[in-house]
Specification:
CATH class of the largest domain in chain B: Mainly Alpha
Distance between the termini of chain B: 38 Å
Shape of chain A: elongated
Strand order of the largest sheet of chain B: 1-2
Helix content of chain B: 55-70%
Number of helices of chain B: 15
Number of helices of chain A: 8
Strand content of chain A: 25-35%
Number of domains of chain B: 2
Strand order of the largest sheet of chain A: 6-7-8-3-9-10
Largest interface: A-B, 29 and 25 residues
Distance between the termini of chain A: 32 Å
CATH architecture of the largest domain in chain B: Orthogonal Bundle
Structural class of chain B: mainly alpha
Number of strands of chain B: 4
Order of helices and strands of chain A: EEEHEEEHHHEHEHEEHHEEEEEEEEEE
CATH superfamily of the largest domain in chain B: MetI-like
Strand content of chain B: under 5%
Number of strands of chain A: 20
Structural class of chain A: alpha+beta
Oligomer: heterodimer
Largest sheet of chain B: 2 strands, antiparallel
Chain lengths: ~350, ~325
Amino acid sequence: MAEIEIKNLHKSFSDFIAVKNSNLVIENKEFFVLLGPSGCGKTTTLRMIAGLELPTSGNIFLDKEDVSYLRASQRDIAFVFQLFALYPHLNVRNNLAFPLKMQGYSKQDIDTRVMEAAKLLRIDHILKSKTSGLAGGDRQRVALGRALVRRPKAFLMDEPLGTLDAEFRELMCLELRKLHDDIDATTVYVTHDQQEAMSMADRIAVMNEGEILQADSPNIIYNKPKTKFVANFIGSPGMNFMPINQKISPNQNNVSVAGTIINIPTQKDGSSSDQNFLGVRPENLKLVSENGIKGNIFGVEYLGSRKILTVETVVGNIKIRVDSDTNVQINEQVQFNVLNNNQIVFDGSTDKALISEFIS
Amino acid sequence: MDTSRSPLEPSGFSRKLAATIIIVYMVVTLIPITWIVATSFKSVDSAISYPPEVFFEPSLEGYVNLFTNRSRQPKEYLDSLPPPETWYEELVRSREMVITGPSKFIGRYSNSLIIGFGATFLSVFLGALAAYAFSRFKVPLKDDLMFFILSTRMFPPIAVAVPIFIMYRKLGLGDTHLGMIILYTVVNLSLAVWLLKGFMDEIPKEYEEAAMIDGYSRMQAFFKVVLPQAMTGIAATAIFCMIFSWNEYAFAVLLTQFNAQTAPPFIPTIIGEGGLDWPAIGAGTTLFLIPVMIFTVVLRKHLLRGITFGAVRK
């Protein structure tokens, strides 16, 4: 297994920049997720690591070896495609054996390895089947099997669960993570689904418009997002942003939002702009009876154990997470305030989080 | 109302109508072929009798005449010969003739097989490579090149017969197998490239990418993963190419005489006594139909089966 490093990686297709000077180190045995909306460059990054695209500039290191311009076949990396790409003219056994045949293993070794992988993935009973007749989950497992028979240095997966139905996807998430731990693999996984990313990853890199905005553990990505985009993209619903019409200066510890004074973690840096945003997660807001920000209930989403309220205020629509026994009516006037001191101030001109006691 | 039938299935009436149309069409197309096959089993006299004989006593005279050269001999000479050893010698003697040797038919037929299959293989092989490149790579002026390839078929090939004739004479390709294979390949190639490009476009590129990641070079991936999935297209293309090069007449007349003459210019020139030997021509034509028929039947299952069906969710 291997460490993967990308340095100043850049890729453009004529005048479209797919990946902008990205830097990243993926540790040995790490489950690393590239997360972002479609078109953000996550798949292009993965394909460059695999050798399916060549970078415009920059380097890729696999175990310290520069593989940037090596062919895919020379990189010892396995790739699981979104559409699985199982060879339709071969049965399951031959699909699994296909990568091994190229490497000149004896027939016996191939059989042993295929059996091993098949047992691990519980597909040993369908080895003789045609791939075209398989159910989604079995196809997924065959695709994984084909990746792992070769015992490659790293596994790259491009939205491998994208075509499965929701219920099955959760199960496969668990299985994938367990498989990763069992074989001590280094895995790079691309998805646009934050739940998948959160539930599996050791670390997540959030990408947008070709840039890696933040690479951290799911916990840090969620609680201490470094940019407005990350804060909004992660979480369901995403973070609320309330406009602050003042410049933030160092050591400031409160701001005024819609006439209400809200305490914030002591700021270490000032803002460059005098139009900034206070970011608060829906679960860090609570309904209060007085001295809060006023608004009208615009919508109520019932989610079983909790409700998400959408409140129309002078600072825009704000989402608040409340217990599901909270009784509110549409158009009812309510007040809310922040619950604790985990707020983040985003600079209005750069969209970056300002450094404070809470976030560095 | 019949509710057991799905609304998507044709009704009993439309099935019967379809069957009737197919049968009528089949009869119309099969009559000439039946007549040719029947003629091949007639005697020389019954082949040209008027009114035409629908029922007749079958004879293998046509086939014997097709494969042999014969000469008429006086009765005294025939009587002096030892009795005939084989059924076909006996048949020829009964017409007061002797076999003087095998005819050129087998040679011409072999030429047809060599040139037909050679040109088909080459067209499909080169066509598949070109189609793959056009389908997958950034080729400069791709659309113009594709149009140029197609434009070579916008005039009848025979329109360039004279330049080709002169060129072939200069190059020493006239009346050679190689020359005919090259010529038929050139004519077929544009069709092959266009047909196969359509099929290649349908094959998701993830298959080759998967193979390349599995350690195969692009060329190996092409042969091991792309070609097997393009079988449907290859079979269809091969049948079209085969039919053209097998049946081609004009260039064969023009460019071949002895060494590389194919069966089509040879068969209609089989001369018997006092005119064309119709049963022998019928026999030659019947035998000529067989290889294309077998070829088509063998490849038919590939034509009917979409091999990649269900393998990829789109």
